[in-house]
Amino acid sequence: MQRRLVLVRHGQSEWNLKNLFTGWKDPGLTEKGVEEAKAAGARLKAQDIKFDVAFTSKLQRAQRTNDLILAELGQRVPVIEDAALNERDYGELTGLNKDDARKTWGEQKVLMWRRSYEVPPPGGESLRDTVARALPYFVREILPRVLNGEQTLVTAHGNSLRALIMVLERLTPEALLRRELFTGAPIIYDVNPDSTIAAIKDLAG
Ligand SMILES: O=C(O)[C@H](O)COP(=O)(O)O
Question: What global pTM score does this model have?
Answer without folding.
Answer: 0.96
